[in-house]
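question for whoever is on the cluster today: can someone run the full assembly for these? two chains, 818 residues total. i dont have access anymore since they changed the login thing
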Amino acid sequence: MGVLDGVRVLTLEQVHALPWGTSFLADFGAEVIRVESVDHMQDRRSGPFPHGQPSEEWWNEGGALAYFGTRNKSSLCLEVVHPKGKEIFLKLVESSDVVTDNFRPGTMRRFGFDHESLLEVNPRIISLSCTAYGHTGPWRRAGSRARTVDAACGLSYLTGYEGGPSVRASSNYMDHSAGNNAAYAIMLALYNRERTGKGMRIDLSMQETGVSAIGPAVLEAQRGITRPRLGCGHLWKSPHNIYPCHGDDRWIAIAVSTDSQWRGLNRAMGSPEWAVDTRFDTMEGRWRDRHDLDEQLSGWTSGQEAEKLMLHLQQYRIPSGAVFTAEELAANGHLRDRGYLQEFYNDHAPQAGVRTYAGRPFRAPLMPLEIKHVAALGEDNWRILRVLAELSEEEIGNLAEEGVISDRPKADEPAP
Amino acid sequence: MLGILNDVKVVELSGSLSGAYCAKLLADQGASTIKVEPPTVGDPARVEPPFISEESNPDGSSLFLAFNTNKRGITLDVSRPEGRRIFLRMVQFADVAIESFGPGYLEDIGLGYAALTESNPTLILTSLTYFGQTGPYSGFEGSDLVAQAAGGFLHAVTGSADRPPMGTVLEQMEITAARNGAIATLAALMHRKQTGEGQHIDVSTMEAAVSTPSGLIHPYSFTGQSPMRGGSDGNVMDGMHLFTKDGEVTLTTAGTGGRPMEAWAEFLEEPGLLAPKFASRRGRMENWEELYGLVAPKLTQWNNLELMEATMARGLVIGLVQNPQQVIESPHLQERGALVEIEHPVNGPMLYAGPGFLMDGVNPMEGSVPAPRLGEHNEQVYCQELGLNIIELENLHEAGIV
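^ ran it for u. tokens below:
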């Protein structure tokens, strides 16, 4: 049972942003039918695989597939470029609520699946296209990677070590942000349709999602205000950085926001002589001499164990956090205690065994979310074609023979 | 305003950016949102530099302006009994309350979930905190940087492998927590329509950070290796930023039909790229300085926008590393109507970021109103909506409650 029970989503999606977005809808109970093609196996090839080794049935065992790719979704492996595939897709649109895609603009029109064509078979349809730059404007035909969007939206320009050049903000932060935004936009459209009875066409741009994440800088630029790159530093707070701890590549983040937190930090350090310095009494003074302060503070942190130091500093109410690795987070007692991590066994990947996954970053007691099922390639072909497309067993058999539907990669598809 | 959520009433009582942004996401879609600020000082973000206007004033913080569009603002000291009583009355008429204080604070002042639902049994309370409402870290102090650290983002994502961890800017973890909070809140509104039940949603910024990159936990669980920052180090063709005549760009090997060096050699008119040592990704990484020496001088002959157009025509995929100035002046974003103009009584008209999507070709934030001035809607809310008379309001004002 979920809040989106009864909502059917047909999704032509690949890579990251949109599969991430529709996984929220699937978690909330929507029937999300991922329409796949044996000519585009890249998501099923992407792993990660157990110990880096794909097994014989590699296409159903990747970790990203379980984390969001076909998480709680259905899989219909149907070649929509085939005339029969197209016909079936449009038949499914009749009983669907939402159609989503993240092809480049123009592709859905070529398939005959643009919003106007969908409206002809379902006047209440909601469609969402998730693209790098949207369906209008001079850049609409440009390809992208998530990091090229991190670049184009302004985020990467602002990111970098102090005094250094810009660096990419991430490899796929904007995939996640756009995916979150897609989930939100679709739920808004569903909410709207409940009230008005009308569907809509949503043109979601990853770049613009990125711009919405740098709102203050958008305003500052209009007044000629530029932001310096400060690494982990802050525009006016100090100490605000990461500091070395015991071990190789071990660090703690400390972010002092007020004078009273600075006095607390002093107490936590046992009031060393260097810290009892009038230069450091005010935020302005600490910021002005922040390099000196950071160096002194590093002297105190280095040699201490990061997580222990975090616990010590937190007793003095200093905002601080160890720079955790994924290995540490997978064993982290706080996350375990909160039920954030999920141990999950994918039925279709017995050789992968039980693996650990991150949960959603919120608990909603009446809407518990977890990975329940991961769709194998074409797992739902028969059910969907029988029940929703109302085809006979013979018709479905013929489609399989003609290669319009599949439940395994093509014979010549090499292992990843 | 498109106003999809214009039948939803939200009260925001937040002390940090995640709460403000979460409420903004609802307000920007039409939810009638009242931001409750402490009297005199207001939201702490009001005094955060930089300031849009010449000198610091409570309406000039870019952070505050950007994160509080389409809200009405009142002042109220909810920690005092009279203020608490008024707040509970507001909650009676609200669908959603959003707060981002440390866990336990609202209970301490008699406004915990139990007290709020006594006033309004179907209320949805969305709490956004750095570490969540439960668990050993729940009482801990945080910040966006702390969430990036404890949430694994710093170690794994942005910086160089041979340099200290380094993250990204402008409170991205708080924003990610807020996006998740908005999704959960909207789902809770749907749940309430179906069942009549409200609930308390507990959002954690640390967890938002963990789930932000392509997943830290399952890659480790599958491979035994912790994902590590540095993916763009020495990666000339797929990650580094390179200078153009008037800006920066990042290249990719995408869109080249599996023959990236041939495509780029032709485009940049640099046959040196065809050398066998650059043919594989590994070869390009091992010889990156030499490759950089060939590519960089070619790119500095191009202007950003011309380079974008020319590569697009060839099907090559690049990203312009735009600064915020270039973003607001972008002909592409202008043609799409991605930014909306909002007139602020003190700061004048400015362009603001939209929500990132158009609905039926329209930016849903078209016709937005700016962030409220401190106490701007006191009279409207207290007198016209809560039924206080002007004398009562003045008395509250004198007592420092409003």
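summary bc i know u wont read the tokens: The mean pLDDT of chain B is 96. Chain B touches chain A through 144 residues (CB under 8 Å).
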